[in-house]
From TrEMBL:
Protein name, per record: IRG1 decarboxylase
SUPFAM superfamilies, per database record: 2-methylcitrate dehydratase PrpD (SSF103378)
GO cellular component, one term: mitochondrion
Organism (species): Dasyornis broadbenti (rufous bristle-bird)
Boundaries of every MmgE/PrpD N-terminal domain copy: 7-149
Gene that encodes the chain: Acod1_1
Length: 156
């Protein structure tokens, strides 16, 4: 018999770009543009400067862009971290219920990983949109089933 986790993984693994509707693509593009905007604005915050300085101690053969810094690259994990902090630093990033900020957690990771692919294996824009939507879907479903997430409105 299939476990809930196994079934969830099977569904996620089976998704492909052909399943993205025009409405989902347009919504995703708006979410991405908004997240890039608040992320670029967030690069000027003190907390973003601190995590960027801290992350400079890490190096790797693979590197990804730190938004707003043409001369500064980090391994994908740390680039996603710094860019994610930039997105959320002023709390202007998108939100939904249960309480979460979907794009700020997903987009920096998807972009950092996509940049780390070798030139001959670069992913398409449609593949990036699929990865973004899968990330948002996973986050939303995990939060939906989280007892902690359901209690957030009661605690505040």
């Amino acid at each position: 018999s299939q476990t809930i986790t196994g079934n969830f993984a099977k569904v996620i693994h089976g998704l492909n770009a052909n399943q993205l509707t025009d409405q989902v693509i347009q919504r995703s593009k708006r979410m991405i543009l908004d997240t890039l905007g608040v992320g670029l604005l967030g690069t000027s915050t003190e907390v973003c400067h601190k995590v960027a300085r801290y992350s400079k101690i890490y190096s790797s053969d693979l590197s990804s862009t730190i938004w707003g810094h043409l001369d500064f690259r980090l391994p994908p994990l740390y680039a996603a971290f710094v860019n994610g902090v930039a997105v959320h630093s002023m709390d202007f990033d998108d939100t939904w219920h249960p309480a979460t900020h979907p794009s700020g957690a997903v987009l920096p990771a998807v972009i950092a990983l996509s940049e780390a692919f070798p030139q001959k294996k670069k992913i398409s824009g449609l593949d990036l949109l699929l990865a973004f939507n899968v990330g948002v879907e996973v986050q939303g479903r995990l939060l939906h089933f989280s007892r902690e997430a359901r209690n957030i409105p009661k605690r505040y």
